[in-house]
């Protein structure tokens, strides 16, 4: 019998579009299990300018962190591990925001660089899926991370400002998107991905997808198939499905996109550029 005492550890992910909190109960060195999970659409990156994070976005971010801290206290969490990614990384006032969070809430937040974010993506994926050779792709709100996997090891990773929200804010003004805007996004995606010199050699290998955009695309396809399981973990998403979804997103205005079975209504306005990135990779 294992007499190691159980403890609860919270992990907070401060993303560009969504903030997540998970609580794990663990017996260190022996086992762990997911106890609870909370998701809030904060859109920390919304309104980002050369001056940095928007005042309203900062307020939303701090309010969510306060909510998460209260939740952790009520559920006997002994340790909080918090990370911030693309939105804070790119913002001129990103470090000031993190300091404000620590001063007001007592939460110390680690700012991940792009390579470290790609590494953690890979660590999580390889812990769940058998992959010897392939690519891990995480499409976030602000950036994407691409990781090269060889012999079940992380070899290298790249991060690019090709997140679903970033591309939407930079290029999309029409609803539905205009052909000119669509082509501009295609050009931007190609221009950045062409810098990944190792990617062509991975053609034909498995691609593991992470992030809300990819999960939502899988859920849309699962609804088409009447998929019997209530999870997208391990779901196989084909190119034909991505192309079909992209056609719908291009043709339909936002109110109609929000009615597509399986789509998250709070992601319908930014999902098209994310789907375009996935198709290109």
As for the number of domains, it is 2
User: Helices and strands, in N-to-C order?
Assistant: EEEHEHHEHEEEHHEHHHH
- Give the end-to-end Cα distance, rounded to a whole number of Å: 48 Å
* Spatial order of the strands forming the largest sheet: 3-2-1-4-5
pLDDT < 50 stretches: none
Beta-strand proportion:
15-25%
What would CATH call the architecture of the largest domain?
2-Layer Sandwich
CATH superfamily of the largest domain: Exopolyphosphatase. Domain 2
Number of helices: 10
| Text of the CATH class of the largest domain | Alpha Beta
CATH topology category name of the largest domain: Nucleotidyltransferase, domain 5
Rg? 19 Å
| Main structural class | alpha/beta
Please give the structural blueprint.
Layout: E1 7-14, E2 18-27, E3 31-41, H1 55-74, E4 79-84, H2 86-90, H3 94-105, E5 109-111, H4 114-128, E6 134-139, E7 144-150, E8 153-160, H5 164-171, H6 179-193, E9 206-210, H7 212-225, H8 239-251, H9 254-257, H10 271-280
Parallel strand pairs: 1-4, 4-5, 6-9
Antiparallel strand pairs: 1-2, 2-3, 6-7, 7-8
Helix pairs in contact: 5-10, 6-10, 7-10, 8-10
Could you please describe the fold and organization of this structure?
This protein has 281 residues and is α/β, with parallel strands linked by helices. It has two domains: 7-111, ATPase, nucleotide binding domain (Nucleotidyltransferase, domain 5); 114-280, Exopolyphosphatase. Domain 2 (Nucleotidyltransferase, domain 5, 2-Layer Sandwich). Helices cover 41% and strands 23% of the residues. The protein contains ten helices and nine strands. The protein has a five-stranded mixed sheet.
